[in-house]
Design a protein that fits this description.
334 residues; 7% strand; binds adenosine-5'-triphosphate; binds magnesium ion
């Protein structure tokens, strides 16, 4: 990339709702790392989003620090990229309020994440869960992001972000950059190991359904061994073979091998050999992340210092956009 050209901006965020899964890693975090050198990147721990499911306060605090450490552990450089905690930058909540007033009830009600999560937690269908997409739009638009690396499950939220931004720009003139989703070819949707028609989620109550990026090798082997497949005992990609397709996708992401190569490799072999190879590839991929995480999490003062600097860098950019939007809406300026 030309050095005298302004770098394109990337923003993405992850909720501290649990330890990231292999799905988060292959679908999002790995791309965050790959984009870190060529773009001006803003990466956030989305703690504001995570209270829609009411975590325990002490647990939220711990998970926020852990998620932050994990972002550094995957190889993000806090000097080069802006790595911060969402609640440390007030502008997110402020712009989200404004965007709420430029979003129709009907369009927010169509979001499949809202429908899924309301079904999962019928006892707590709060307004925050409903307004999730407008807060996510604020996260993105505040930084004038060009690209947003996400998994397929967040595509609909990116579309509503674009609609809200276009609507606002249409009313008030250019205010926000219209962001593009960046969805990797492989790993965009890793499925649950137990119910391979559903996406792998870190908030799943069945721990056998997901691999956490901090799972040790024995745990990885055990979980992959018990992954749901089918009774055919032949490794090939086909509609209806959801469990095998998913394991092939995971194996492909970790080794770079194509599906044809994988089919050839396991020609005449059963699922036992295949699962052992998948587990080995996953363990090799995650071991360096786990080691670096363990090193970093022991150094809280370093993490706090990075967080503080990250929040300041993020706030400078975010406040500029917030002021611009507030002025356009007509809020009285001092
Ligand atoms: P939660 O269940 O709390 O919503 P989550 O696993 O969906 O957790 P998020 O923090 O909501 O994680 O999402 C972080 C990023 O990971 C997003 O970019 C999302 O698109 C991506 N992602 C989530 N699940 C998967 C998956 N199974 N495969 C690929 N990418 C995923
Ligand atoms: Mg999610």
């Amino acid at each position: 990339m030309e050095t005298n050209e302004k770098k394109k901006v990337v923003l993405s965020a992850i909720q501290p709702t649990g330890t990231p899964t292999l799905g988060n890693y292959l679908g999002a975090l790995k791309n965050w790392k790959n984009m870190a050198d060529d773009y001006d990147c803003f990466y956030a721990v989305a703690d504001l989003h995570s209270i829609t499911v009411r975590p325990e306060p002490a647990q939220l605090r711990r998970r926020t620090l852990e998620m932050y450490a994990l972002l550094l552990a995957i190889g993000l450089d806090p000097e080069k990229n802006t790595v911060f905690v969402q609640s440390h930058v007030n502008a997110h909540a402020q712009l989200a309020w404004i965007l709420n007033c430029y979003t129709q009830f009907g369009e927010a009600a169509r979001m499949t994440q809202f429908k899924d999560k309301s079904e999962k937690h019928p006892e707590n269908v709060n307004v925050g869960l409903f307004a999730y997409p407008t807060l996510m739009a604020a996260d993105i638009l505040l930084y004038q992001a060009d690209f947003v690396p996400i998994g397929v499950d967040q595509k609909q939220h990116l579309e509503i972000t674009r609609n809200i931004a276009e609507r606002f720009n249409g009313l008030y003139g250019d205010t926000f950059t219209i962001p593009e989703p960046f969805i990797g070819k492989a790993g965009a949707k890793i499925m649950s190991l137990q119910e391979p028609t559903k996406k792998m989620s870190k908030s799943d109550t069945n721990v056998k359904a997901f691999i956490s990026v901090l799972d040790d090798t024995d745990t990885i082997v055990r979980k992959i061994k018990s992954a749901v497949t089918d009774s055919e005992a032949r490794v090939y990609y086909a509609e209806g073979k959801d469990g095998v397709n998913n394991l092939m996708g995971i194996y492909s992401c970790c080794t770079g091998k194509s599906f044809e190569e994988i089919e050839q490799e396991f020609e005449g072999k059963g699922y036992g050999d295949f699962k052992a190879a998948v587990a080995e590839a996953v363990a090799a991929e995650l071991a360096p992340v786990r080691d670096e995480f363990n090193r970093l999490i022991a150094d809280k003062s370093y993490l706090n210092a990075c967080m503080e600097a990250g929040a300041q860098k993020a706030a400078r950019v975010a406040n500029r956009t917030l002021r611009k939007a507030m002025k356009k809406v007509g809020f009285y300026q001092l």
